[in-house]
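Notes to self after the Tuesday call (sharing in case useful).
The group wants a holo model before anyone commits to mutagenesis around the pocket. I volunteered. Ligand is zinc ion. Logging inputs and output together so the record is complete.
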Amino acid sequence: MMNKIEHIGIAVKNLSEAVEIYSKLFNQPSYKTEVVESESVTTSFFQIGENKIELLEATKPTSAIAKFIENKGEGIHHIAFDVDDIVKELERLKKEGFIILNEQPKKGADNKLVCFVHPKSANGVLIELCQEIK
Ligand code: ZN
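Result:
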């Protein structure tokens, strides 16, 4: 089951500049900055009520974030949904015909298991499923 929007991911060129801007926007600091090797990104998180905003900067030119910015510029990159059982949800979505980018959930930012649904199968929106690692 999908519970709620966990976070919205925003691709940025310069993380420290973006963190400064969003700290002013939200009137609070980022609570966490973390390098995610598997995705070649550095991320910073803000908690807004029960949802979060994730800013993502590429650490390598081959990072999906670098490619995204090259093609589309900075902006909303993905929407992440909190799920109770990521494996079950993956199976369900596969059966429904969605294209899954990683068949095995992997360790993502902010202590989560994550997987992604290809934007091609969701009207141009990259969907992330995430399950908290307990
Ligand atoms: Zn994310």
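Two things stood out.
Residues 7, 9, 54, 78, 80, 128 surround zinc ion (CB under 6 Å).
The two ends are 18 Å apart (CA to CA).
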